[in-house]
Design goal:
alpha/beta, about 15% strand, binds zinc ion
């Protein structure tokens, strides 16, 4: 069966396993293509991104593993890069970038807190509440609209291969705690963002990582958004956003079933010769 995953983390960032342990698990689980995509370095400290001085070694290591396991799996070297419009992400200019097969573009940061540190929407509910209060004067609608505007801007300016966890902003919104995702303003905000993405070459991932890590009960993006993705013919791929070796292909089969039920016909996957598309139905039967 054609099985793949391009969104995965290692001990170079906030994963606990080495790239080799992750690749070995991908082989065991029958993946044909596996991309390593640790969080790229940032020009300030975090406890979840790679250090700038490690970037070259990271690329060297994954390229070495690519050769070591080439008869068993196709390994690709990627990076998950944060979009920070006020700071040109310097990692993009690093010479190591010429050795990268693909990039995943993410928006984790939105505004700044009172202590002038950057607020990330990827933490817990308490931090989310604090960010809305300190960065957006308590205006959740403004925060959500800014988040999707940044995703659209990232697609237009960087055009990453893959757009990560499109509706990450819902991470702490279980039970519509902060906003109602069925309201017109939300649907239109997301639609505008999707229209921008549709005009680029970027691919949207169906990301199972939130469910795998127990944060979420549904994948990113939601079914409602996926229906719009389908209507706009935006290409999709499946990602586990794995932070552990056990989860390298988490939910892959469930996503295939879901996509087929919704009416998706094609799925994108990356090879040494670039992005290809496969018929979902044939993929399920392989
Ligand atoms: Zn991410
Ligand atoms: Zn990730």
């Amino acid at each position: 069966m054609l099985k793949f995953n391009y969104h995965s983390h290692t001990n170079y960032c906030d994963g606990i396993y080495t790239a080799e342990e992750m690749i070995k698990s991908a082989i065991e689980k029958g993946l044909c293509y596996y991309g390593v995509s640790s969080h790229a370095p940032l020009p300030f400290d975090t406890d979840w991104t790679m250090k700038n001085e490690d970037l070259n070694q990271y690329v060297d290591e994954v390229l070495y593993l690519k050769q070591k396991y080439e008869n068993r799996i196709t390994v690709l070297v990627g990076l998950e890069i944060d979009y920070l419009p006020d700071l040109e992400s310097f990692s993009i200019k690093d010479e190591s970038m010429s050795r990268i097969d693909y990039i995943i573009g993410s928006v984790h940061f939105l505004g700044k807190l009172n202590d002038s540190t950057r607020w990330t929407v990827d933490y817990d509910k308490k931090e989310f509440e604090k960010g809305i209060r300190e960065s957006f004067d308590g205006d959740i609608m403004s925060a959500v609209k800014t988040y999707y505007k940044l995703i659209g801007d990232m697609a237009e300016t960087i055009e990453p291969d893959i757009i990560a966890h499109l509706d990450l902003i819902k991470k702490n919104n279980f039970g519509n705690y902060f906003f109602d995702d069925s309201e017109v303003w939300y649907i239109e905000t997301v639609r505008n963002c999707l229209e921008t993405i549709a005009s680029t070459k970027s691919i949207i991932e169906i990301n199972t990582g939130g469910v795998a890590r127990g944060f979420m009960t549904e994948f990113y993006p939601s079914d409602r958004i996926l229906r719009e993705v389908l209507a706009m013919k935006i290409p999709v791929t499946i990602s586990s956003d794995a932070h552990t070796a056990e989860n390298v292909a988490f939910g892959f089969d469930d996503v295939l079933v879901k996509l087929e039920d919704m009416g998706f016909e094609k799925i994108h996957y990356l090879t040494e010769n670039g992005w290809q598309e496969s018929d979902i139905r044939s993929l399920k039967w392989q």
